[in-house]
Design brief:
Elements lengths: L2 E11 L7 E10 L2 E7 L9 E4 L3 E5 L1 E3 L20 H12 L4 H17 L2 E8 L8 H11 L2 E8 L18 H15 L8 E7 L7 H14 L2 E6 L3 H11 L3 H7 L7 E5 L5 H10 L2 E4 L1 H6 L7 H7 L3 E3 L12 H18 L8 H4 L3 H16 L15 E5 L12 H7 L7 E4 L2 E5 L2 E2 L4 H16 L3
Helix pairs in contact: 2-3, 2-15, 4-5, 11-13, 13-14
The structure holds zinc ion.
Amino acid sequence: MTTLLVKNCSFLVTMDGQRREICDGGLFIRDGFIEKVAATSELPQRADEVLDLTGYIVFPGLVNTHHHFYQTLTRVVPAAQNANLFTWLKTLYPIWARMTPDDIYVSTQTALSELALDLCTTASDHLYLYPNGSRLDDEIAAAGTVGLRLHASRGSMSLGESQGGLPPDSVVEPEDSILMDSERLIQTYHDPKPGAMVRIVLAPCSPFSVTGDLMRQSAELARKYGVHLHTHLAETQDEEVFCQQKFGHRPVGYMESVNWVGKDVWFAHSVYLNAEEIKTFARTGCGVAHCPSSNMRLASGIAPIREYLRSGVNVGVAVDGSASNDGSHMLEEVRQALLLARVRAGVEGASLSSNEEAWIMTARQALEMATLGGAAVLGRTDIGSLEPGKCADLVAIRLDRLDYAGAQHDPVAALVFCAPQKVDFNLVQGKPVVANGQLVRIEQRLLVEQHNRASRRLVGAL
Ligand SMILES: [Zn+2]
């Protein structure tokens, strides 16, 4: 049994049931789980370890609900810089087809290190290409070296160009081997217990890269083991046209037809849903991973996030893959989510003077999406807030930085409205992943060198 006392936090944001924000607060942690959250004076004064966070804002670590770690190898590829989704994919598929297990390993370390410095404590990843002997095991092994919590999605593509799909035939897999590997991964790695560091998710890539059969069978397998389901959905208008032509349904109708609705399902993007489809998500419990930077980068559109929240749909925030966002900064996504919701409100003719709450996303709502919202989307009740019984996943940022000068009267709003900052401390299950702004377990300079070598090999061969 080991104990940790985090004390003297100048401003502690709990995200608990009362949304308490405590001045001079702290936490008492035992074996990685929170035992007490209160003013420092009300906490036990002794512990095996003590962390004094005088001068810091402390809040729950952010939960990233959608990413493709491997894409950190192909940021800003010139031919894909100014393309929409389908062209962007077709440009990058052949490059990704050259990846090796070592590339998956190093890119996972890079993406998770970046996420750790950018306030994330739990990350979901969607790996859907397995070229040259790559396996999801490579990603899971690499994640263990950084220390963030991982929801590893066994993605897949089975509908090649010759069958009417988007990806080239060279990167798709036979469906029986996808399902066998999915079951192996669940049996090997999936941990359903509170505090789990690794969970497995089944995640056929998108309606335009797998068959309906694989969707149905993946759902069946996931439900046999109680693991979650994830895919891209309603990201662009091109996809809507594809679904109508190929399946005779809009994307959400297609998901209903293959048994892909429920509390155990979450979708990336969900930009193009109509009012009826939003009700379907709310009624069945489907979650949404909102990726504002990616949606802007690929000119996909603006997701109706305020409508989702008003309807009771669970929404989390996500950075999406680093080739369609180019950054993995969770706090930046929180800020983009807030700003983009306001753009949509403005375009729809919102009047700020009347019924403001109905239209305007606030800083606290945006932060809540990235913490409690993300936890709900991933189906976790043990993370997302700082309260007794939950995992000690927390981040801290110094408040006396230049970027927050003049904003000390509302530290939560400073976090979201001011320029996105990097973290000073990041603790997962009570263990430091970042301390004093430095990665604890990763030699950053060496990692960047390795990563750039791998990237040059892949992209340079263009
Ligand atoms: Zn994606």
